[in-house]
UniProtKB/TrEMBL annotation:
<feature type="transmembrane region" description="Helical">
    <location>
        <begin position="270"/>
        <end position="287"/>
    </location>
</feature>
<feature type="transmembrane region" description="Helical">
    <location>
        <begin position="80"/>
        <end position="98"/>
    </location>
</feature>
<keyword id="KW-1133">Transmembrane helix</keyword>
<feature type="transmembrane region" description="Helical">
    <location>
        <begin position="232"/>
        <end position="258"/>
    </location>
</feature>
<comment type="similarity">
    <text>Belongs to the BI1 family.</text>
</comment>
<feature type="transmembrane region" description="Helical">
    <location>
        <begin position="119"/>
        <end position="137"/>
    </location>
</feature>
<feature type="transmembrane region" description="Helical">
    <location>
        <begin position="181"/>
        <end position="200"/>
    </location>
</feature>
<keyword id="KW-0472">Membrane</keyword>
<feature type="transmembrane region" description="Helical">
    <location>
        <begin position="149"/>
        <end position="169"/>
    </location>
</feature>
<feature type="transmembrane region" description="Helical">
    <location>
        <begin position="206"/>
        <end position="225"/>
    </location>
</feature>
<dbReference type="Pfam" id="PF01027">
    <property type="entry name" value="Bax1-I"/>
</dbReference>
<protein>
    <recommendedName>
        <fullName>Bax Inhibitor family protein</fullName>
    </recommendedName>
</protein>
<keyword id="KW-0812">Transmembrane</keyword>
<dbReference type="InterPro" id="IPR006214">
    <property type="entry name" value="Bax_inhibitor_1-related"/>
</dbReference>
<dbReference type="GO" id="GO:0005743">
    <property type="term" value="C:mitochondrial inner membrane"/>
</dbReference>
Length: 335
């Protein structure tokens, strides 16, 4: 009965397949009808109907196990080779285009190299603190509460927390280690609190964006470190104007109506690709500014402060990373 309840029309289909008994049209009165062998004719027919019924049930409710295809190692190796070629080609092309005039002092002096390495170390530590803190906040449910809050409130509180801790770090004397590193850690926590909703995205996409960001910043930093002294410091003024335009274009969705589709599209492009160009230029400018500060600190003109230098590189990294994530996400949606 369970089969009938699940497939109510299967029984009717099976019964229609039963052959109709042929009845003779005429019969002589002097002959007696032949006895019908019901057991030999009807039983095989019922057996066929039952088999047909069971086969129909199996095709409907029993699914064939899916075949798991083995990963294509050749395709993975090709992607890794393509990625390595792209990164290497980017470094080579950037060095050839922007770094035709190298340093005239025979290389980077030891004090400048040490100053730059310590700055990069603090930059890596800051990025690591941001990543770990963002993961912890995301698991605690902070990302959901942040996304459901008022966007103007999030923007205001984020700016106050970020700018307050950043300028507090800049204003603290390098000898006051506790206060300086506490404000620096607060700045990283504020950035993590703002960026934690990015963890709703796929980890593979975030990893690719981080790899591309590191490759882009690494190639530009290499150019800035090996170029002539103070060659790109003139970019400070144009880059400041560019970042103002990018910031205004980023606020356009909060101000413009939804019907202004074309304006919103162009503002998004300015925020994405214009922001990549601007913060790539800031990376080049900041590296040369760090080397200039290293030379000044060696002469005793300024205090050595690698924490302040790392904040600038962290901001460059985060702004490029966010745009890389959005560009890669848009490419995945088009596929």
């Amino acid at each position: 009965m369970a089969f009938v309840y699940r497939r109510p029309f299967a029984l009717t289909t099976c019964l229609k397949q039963l052959p109709k008994a042929a009845t003779p049209s005429t019969r002589a009165f002097h002959t007696s009808p032949k006895p019908l062998n019901l057991h030999s004719k009807i039983l095989p027919t019922l057996t066929k109907s039952r088999n047909h019924f069971q086969q129909t049930f199996r095709r409907t409710y029993i699914q064939q196990p899916g075949q798991v295809s083995a990963p294509n190692t050749a395709s993975l190796s090709q992607r890794l080779l393509y990625g390595a070629a792209i990164v290497g080609g980017t470094v080579l092309a950037t060095n050839l285009v922007f770094n035709r005039e190298t340093r005239e002092d025979g290389g980077m002096p030891p004090f400048e190299r040490q100053y730059l390495n310590e700055t990069f170390l603090h930059t890596g530590l800051g990025i690591g603190i941001i990543g770990i803190t963002a993961q912890a906040l995301h698991r605690s449910g902070w990302s959901v509460r942040l996304m459901t809050a008022n966007p103007w409130l999030v923007l205001g509180c984020g700016l106050v927390a970020s700018l307050g801790t950043m300028y507090g770090t800049f204003a603290t004397h390098p000898d006051n280690y506790v206060q300086k590193y506490a404000l620096w850690a607060g700045f990283n926590v504020a950035q993590a609190a703002i960026l934690s909703p990015l963890l709703f995205l796929q980890p593979a996409l975030l990893a690719r964006a981080g790899l591309y960001t590191a490759a882009m910043m690494g190639s530009i930093a290499f150019v800035g470190a090996t170029a002539k002294q103070e060659k790109y410091l003139y970019l400070g003024g144009p880059l400041l104007a560019g970042v103002a335009i990018v910031a205004v274009s980023g606020l356009a969705p909060l101000v413009l109506p939804v019907t202004a589709a074309r304006t919103l599209m162009w503002s998004e492009r300015i925020w994405l690709y214009g922001g990549l160009a601007v913060f790539g230029g800031f990376t080049l400018y900041d590296v040369q500014k760090i080397l200039m500060h290293a030379r000044m600190a060696e002469r005793g003109l300024v205090r050595k402060d690698v924490v302040n230098e790392s904040v600038s590189l962290e901001l460059d990294f985060l702004n490029i990373f966010v745009r890389m994530v959005q560009i890669l996400g848009m490419r995945n949606q088009k596929r």
